[in-house]
Amino acid sequence: MRVLHAVTLHSPSHAFGGPVRVALNLAKGLRARGHEARLLALGEGFDPWPTSVEGVPAKLFPARRLLPLGFSGITSPALLASASRLVRDADLVHVHLARDLVTLPLALAALRCGKPLVLQTHGMVDPSDRILAKVLDAVAVRRLLRGADTVLYLTPHEREGLDAVAGSPLARAVRLVNGTPAQEERPPLGGPPRILYAARLQARKRPVDFVDAAPAVLAVHPDAEFVVAGPDEGELSAVRARVAALGLGDRFTVPGALSGAGVLAELRRAHVYVLPSVDEPFPMSVLEALAVGVPAVVTHSNGLARDIAAAGAGRAVAPGPRTVAEAVLDLLDPAVNTRASAAARELAASAFSMDAVLDTLTAVYEGAGRR
To answer: Which of 209, 246, 247, 290 has a Cα-to-Cα distance from 346 of 20 to 30 A?
Structure first.
């Protein structure tokens, strides 16, 4: 089967985050099973321009920023002009849908061409009072949700939101969790405690809470080291300012955006992974930490919070620096960390393996093809 995975943007800094990682993981898994999966997206910041990403054949169009609306304001006239041809070359089109000028036109082109269409929204399409969202919902999103062969959702909360946007319960919706490839186990750690944040630096993810949790951790572990890694989406200056205000420049490393291999290298050195964000649907960075065996600290509104807490693979806490610091200190106890590390790997392997995700996805594709 020739499967086209369409996502908004791929860049060396991984600015678009989780949806690209999910698309690549699924495409690699499908290719390993004999399917011809490829990636279609806008590209930005490449030199030279790639024709594949992590072994997945890719067609990337140079991004053009038309409106000051973040990812919603970027597109490519060349991509729009060739959208129908691109989807006709596939047996099935899998669109990682957002309210933007990339994935919406591609999904509409697949609908017009009568191609089997699978939508996966990653929590990016939810009820909104913003004028632009309302316009796009009326013009395109509602039609796509109702017309797709299958809509994939992560959590019951996301499903409720999609039903609300569609205006009625979706007829064909399937829950598909994010999967993570198996990883080598984190080696035995020595030296000072190392606490890692590796995600986009944006307000919702609360990287400043991570910084503000450091003094309480350092009061018990004065040699602890902290890493804040990820592409800047508005919070880098606040992170640097807070580190400076606390006088912790020698305790913090802020390396910027890391490659996938770079993130894994940091995870293998980390004692604890922290993502203090709120309303996080299903973060790939946490899944990658669990796969390596790094206990994770997340907030209660994280889509993985219940799984992590139930498995003992980390801690789920109320938002805020105090609760984050308390959870980190708990997980820095060597015996606790050892147990949580083993539980993290077991949870990743049992609940979020790529094999289980791909079994569900290929069944979805087969059903979409029959329809």
So the answer is: 209
Q: Is residue 61 located within the same domain as residue 131?
A: yes
Q: Tokens 């909104």 appear where?
A: 128
Q: Are residues 67 and 208 in the same domain?
A: no
Q: At 166, list the tokens.
A: 């569609």
Specify burial of residue 293 (Cβ count, 10 A radius: 0-12, 13-18, 19+): buried
pTM of the entire structure?
A: 0.81
Residue 162 belongs to a domain: yes
Tens-digit pLDDT profile for residues 198-244: 999 999 999 999 999 999 999 999 999 999 999 998 999 999 999 99
Pairing status of strand 252-256 against strand 74-75: unpaired
Q: Report the CATH number that the domain containing residue 357 is assigned in CATH.
A: 3.40.50.2000
Same domain for 342 and 357, yes or no, is: no
In a domain, 184, yes or no: no
| Of residues 123, 124, 128, 129, the one with CA closest to residue 102 | 124
33-65 per-position pLDDT tens digit: 999 999 999 998 888 899 999 999 999 999 988
Distance separating alpha carbons of residues 89 and 26, to the nearest angstrom:
19
Rounded to 10°, the helix 207-220/321-331 angle is 50
Tell me, yes or no, whether 188 lies in a domain.
no
Alpha carbon separation from 14 to 44, 51, 315 (Å, rounded): 10, 17, 27
Is 90 within a domain? yes
Residue 38 β-bridge partners? 4
Domain containing 270: what range?
194-351
